[in-house]
Amino acid sequence: MARRSEHTQEQIREMVLNAAETIVVEEGFHALTVRKVALEIGYTVGSIYMVFANMDDVVMHVKGRALDELAGQLRQLEPCESAEQHILALAEVYLQFAHQHFNRWRMIFEAIKDAPVPEWYQQKTREMFSIVEQPFCRLLPDPADPEQAHLAAQALWSGVHGACVLSLNGSLGRVGAENAQATVAMLVTNFIAGWSQPRNPASATPPRK
Prior knowledge:
This protein has helices spanning 9-27, 34-41, 45-51, 55-75, 83-100, 102-110, 119-139, 146-169, 177-195. The chain has a domain at 79-198: Tetracycline Repressor, domain 2, CATH 1.10.357. With 209 residues, the chain is mainly alpha-helical. Mean pLDDT is 85; it is low at 200-205. Residues 33-52 bind DNA.
């Protein structure tokens, strides 16, 4: 069924990614195989390997497109009056994306191989996290210490991600989107309240024996 003369390699590449994405959305990423993609686009397996190194390469690019879409939605947020409101809005967008695009969102975190992660994919991850870190920088008690914003963003987003996972996989029973949103809002609000408190080094000193 090869039709190499009908499309350029760039067009075939896009067809492969679109087909792979459709399979992930409809059947889950575990159902994604090179033969299914080839059948979907009407090309041979060999044609796919002319534009991608292997199936892992296809998977990484499908994940990359999901990251790009998520980052795009995070960037489109309207300006908020406070950093706290901005962080909460980011968390709500993340939760909404996870609910609306469950299989693609799940694939980002579960379709992981032992092979080294390409630099271009690592850059996409860094760019997405930088969106989350920006409002934390506005809350820093010491603007000269941006590493604290980085650590806080990672810590909070680990919690937000956990709440998404539990709400979507049924680990806490039937948790609807509204209840999950309330859980995330409570997590974000309390985390920021605690993190924003002035730090008193003396209070962290252990008592003398």
